[in-house]
Amino acid sequence: LNPAWQVLTPSWIRLDPLSGVLHLQAVQGDTTLLRLPLQPDGTPISLEVYLDWNRAEWASGLEIDLQPMEGEGLQWLLGSWGGSAWLERQIGQVSEAPLLTWPVLNAAVQDRLELGFWWLEGRPMMRLLKNGENIQLPPLNISELPQDQAYWELTLRARNLQDGSQGMMSEVDIHSIKLGGFQIRAEAAPPLD
User: Fold this and answer.
1) Quick one: average pLDDT of 173-192?
2) Fewest CB within 10 A of the end CB: N or C in the chain?
């Protein structure tokens, strides 16, 4: 874990010293877990996240945000929904309908996900591998990211997806986060949230 990451909820985060895997256990939603201050370096923006989604209880989620101080950024949400007899997982943009939904037998089913985002000829592109399978996704509804902003953050947040879902848990093991178009900012800007 790069020392520039600001760990905001240390009791929910564990770094495996042998594998380098970052284990997040998000128990209380709408809480920022980690924050990384960034500034654009003028190269194309890209973001890749490799993770194992180990547990997702009803109405729990993890949000992965790449945001400027002002304007629109990327906000991915991994969430879980269901009833007494079924449970499903979803991936999508925070303010949009899910891009992908799939059923799971129980909250503890593991899914290995590789999420990738980049720009190609001015259009936002996203790649998703779920358990090694390339998943076709609909086009993203994201405008051009404002590279003229000096302050950006990459943030990981626990999310409640519905009132009354406090205490529901998501567990994620992050194997790597690769970021293009940015360098780590030495001094942090005021938090975005």
Assistant:
1) 81
2) C
How far, in Å, CA of 30 to CA of 155, rounded?
12
Q: How far apart are CA 100 and CA 89, in angstroms?
A: 8
- Contact (Cβ atoms closer than 8 angstroms) between residue 93 and residue 141: yes
CA–CA distance, 190 with 26 (Å, rounded to integer): 24
First to last CA, the chain: 22
What is the pLDDT confidence band of residue 159, given thresholds at 50, 70 and 90?
Answer: confident
Buried b (16+ CB within 10 A) or exposed e, 90-108: bbbbeeeebbeeeebeebe
- φ/ψ (deg, to 5) at 168: -75, 150
User: Can you name the residues that pair with 104 across neighbouring β-strands?
Assistant: 87
Predicted TM-score of the model (pTM): 0.83
Mean pLDDT of 148-175: 79
Q: Are 191 and 65 in contact (CB under 8 A)?
A: no
Instruction: Determine the length of the chain.
Output: 193
